[in-house]
Amino acid sequence: MNAAAVVQDLKAFLPELCLLGGAFLVLLVDLFVKNKKILPALALLALAAAAVPAIPFRGTQALFSGFFTLDAFTHFFRLLALGASAVWVILSAGYKPLQKQYEGEYYTLVLFMALALVLMAASTNLLMIFLSIEFVSILSYLLVGFEKKNSQSKEASVKYLLFGSVASALMLYGISLVFGATGSLELTAIPAKLDDPSFYGLTLTGSILLLAGLGFKISMAPFHLWAPDAYEGAPAPFTAFLTVAPKAIGFAVLMRVLTGAFHWFSFEWSPILMVLSILTMTIGNITAVAQTNVKRLLAYSSIGQAGYILMGLAAATPLGLTAVLYYLLAYAFTNLGVFAVAIVVGSGTGSYELESYRGLAKRAPVLSACMVVFLLSLAGIPPLAGFFAKLYVFSAVIENRYYLMAAAAAINSAVAAFYYLRIVRQMYLVPADETSRIWSCPVTRFTIFILLAGTIILGLVPAPFIDYFKALLPF
Amino acid sequence: MIIPLEHFLIFAAVLFVIGLCGTLVRRNIVGILMSIELMLNAVNINLVAFSRSTSLDPVTGQIFAIFVVALAAAAVAVGLAIVIALYRVRKTICADEISLLKW
User: Would the CB atoms of A149 and B16 count as touching at under 8 Å?
Assistant: First the structure.
């Protein structure tokens, strides 16, 4: 590979370069500026600068000798990651526990995280996939433990670190076996080598271990143990981001690996994923019922949601994969919305306990109404985004005649509706102890309205989005 | 004398399982981090062994192993920093005693 080709590829790499430059700029500006309010604005500017070259689609191209692939699929996940990061920055700007605590470092880490996710979405080489996943993981450990002197935050960070390191070691061992069996690290080169029967056992073991490592990122059932603790202990804006963006990009990589490289193996991994998805949603939803802390309740709810999304992947058909993409977008809008409201309420009442939602409808009528819409969307009530997401996933599963799975998911949805509506009941039917209004800053309110609009529009006119996602699938 | 590939793979698998058992039975967090290093070294042996035998390009696996070494160092730097931060607020690095968050 010569220098001219590298320069040519760097042009397509502009979003990544913007984020990298932005991260160092924030760190530098932090040294010289007293007014720290400028830092989130600068971070937003860097994200916007990265989004502009990320939008135009120039057809499929391989970058840096096939380490990255730019296609419509990558473009979608790039924009999703950048959008989620922007919401994260806005929510962090108004979040009190972070103020006057290394804000420069915090927003630098935010931009590095955006960079890591954008890299992860584009990587199509096992080495690059491993490196970008590790990049995301290490940043996540740091950010979960970011609140100084908060012992819950530190504990969550250590637990996340230990589980995460073991999961990446498992994934790495899997990658080494796949490499041994196929002789190559390129995802596109793997399918040609899979039909060699002498390496069958090696490839199967390798791909299952690889699935374990990726399953950790999306909080799939036996590897979900870190999730509730990390989500509860982390600074709330980061929790909102962590439940959405790394999970969505994790699904992107999983789709690339399973349906791209190991498609020939789908008769092996499809039943495994089916069992794991039922397990994931059941554990998530049943445990969520017993929670009294809203952050932890939403953490378990997001594990349950990962189970539904996994269902579409287990179906392994074009309809199933389209459903996964639609679900990820709907889930991004809805879950960021729920957390945005929870953060505003949390900083207003000083607590994330379910009891602090008593009589919220009187204290913050508009916010409560938004919260109801988001919760109904998560529960899958028409005509919101969450309903169509579930509908598509269910139809993909039934098309494949996985009736048992559809039944399990239907029961789970009913359980989930119960705990979502419990929050609504606290807000509207239980009288408040206190009557003071809850204040929210205009930028946060504006963000919540955009997320609300996304949730409603995705639900009212799903057809164009479905067509877009169908055209997106590279496999 | 050329050592056959199977010997490397069995050695790596044993080393990996020792590391995995270490992460499960160790109570000291630094001990768990050391066990994780063992697992990563098992991966390196695999990569280098495959690089010599089945790889299409003889250097791919070796380069991967260098990346793994570098990344393990980075992960441990972050890991020990987090452990020190935990020690400052809780005065313990025993995995059994960090139990504020449950269910």
Answer: no
Residue A145: count of CB within 10 angstroms of its CB: 28
Say if B89 is an interface residue toward chain A (CB within 8 Å): yes
pLDDT in tens, B24-39: 999 999 999 999 999 9
Q: Report the alpha-carbon distance of residue A65 to residue A1 in Å, rounded.
A: 7
CA–CA distance, A309 with A293 (Å, rounded to integer): 24
Architecture field, domain B5-97:
Orthogonal Bundle (1.10)
* Confidence at A19, pLDDT banded by 50, 70, 90: very high
How far is A458 from A339, CA to CA, in rounded Å? 19
Domain boundaries defined on chain A:
273-475
Domain ranges of chain B: 5-97
* Reported ipTM: 0.95
| Beta-strand pair A68-70/A61-63 | antiparallel
Strand partners, A70: A61
Query: What average pLDDT score do residues A354-375 get?
Result: 90
List pLDDT tens digits, range A197-216: 778 888 888 989 999 989 99
Does B89 sit within 8 Å of A151, measured CB to CB?
Answer: yes
pLDDT, position A239: 95
Question: Which residues from A are below 8 Å from B19, CB to CB?
Answer: 169
Q: Which residues are bridge partners to A68 per DSSP?
A: A63, A123
